[in-house]
Inverse folding.
């Protein structure tokens, strides 16, 4: 696979809590230089980054991040606020407490609420695979597919582990074609990137 094809699938990411404005500008410069899919940045930097890049680069941000336990209304507000600031894509952390309690309908309602406020924009749902059982991962594939979200995403990168080859393969097998897979966390080399893409990841968070 050509390097440019790999880069075109990457969400070039900087979500460190103390990331500075200068670092975000550098990230955007790299994103535009290398032709990445988007830059994924903290919500507080979205408006400034959008003013800087204009239409030259897609801006992605996160909501409910990194723990996922804020309320659906709070996540919906975060998403709406980010879009007003110029975000093109939203990566939402799902409520893992609800997953553990098997509250599948409540999880679906939460995702649908956020989807309502993100129409016309890409919505990715982070399920934090490192904390889930295989049965929970399979159920989340079904819930995400029913919600109308565009992607299911493995990880925040802030928990106990990132994407694994086994998880990406499982998510791709369990999700319909309408839901794409984003592998995120722990992708360090070109070989990693190629492997994840071959297993069905359409996006890479790295």
């Amino acid at each position: 696979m050509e390097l440019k094809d790999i880069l075109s699938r990457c969400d070039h990411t900087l979500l460190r809590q103390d990331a500075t404005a200068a670092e975000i500008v550098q990230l955007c410069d790299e994103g535009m230089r290398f032709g990445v899919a988007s830059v994924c940045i903290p919500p507080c930097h979205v408006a400034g980054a959008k003013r800087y890049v204009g239409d030259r680069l897609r801006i992605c941000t996160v909501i409910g991040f990194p723990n996922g336990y804020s309320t659906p209304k709070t996540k919906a507000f975060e998403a709406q606020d980010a879009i007003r600031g110029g975000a093109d894509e939203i990566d939402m952390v799902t409520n893992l407490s609800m997953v553990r309690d098997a509250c599948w309908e409540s999880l679906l309602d939460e995702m649908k609420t956020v989807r309502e406020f993100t129409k016309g924009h890409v919505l990715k749902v982070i399920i934090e695979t490192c904390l889930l059982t295989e049965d929970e991962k399979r159920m989340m594939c079904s819930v995400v597919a029913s919600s109308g979200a565009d992607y299911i995403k493995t990880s925040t990168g802030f928990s106990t582990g990132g994407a694994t080859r086994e998880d990406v393969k499982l998510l791709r097998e369990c999700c319909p074609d309408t839901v794409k897979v984003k592998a995120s966390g722990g992708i360090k080399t070109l070989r990693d990137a190629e492997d994840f893409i071959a297993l069905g990841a359409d996006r890479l968070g790295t």
Remarks:
- The longest strand covers residues 59-63.
- The beta strands are 10-13, 38-41, 59-63, 89-93, 122-126, 151-153, 180-184, 201-205.
- The mean pLDDT is 97.
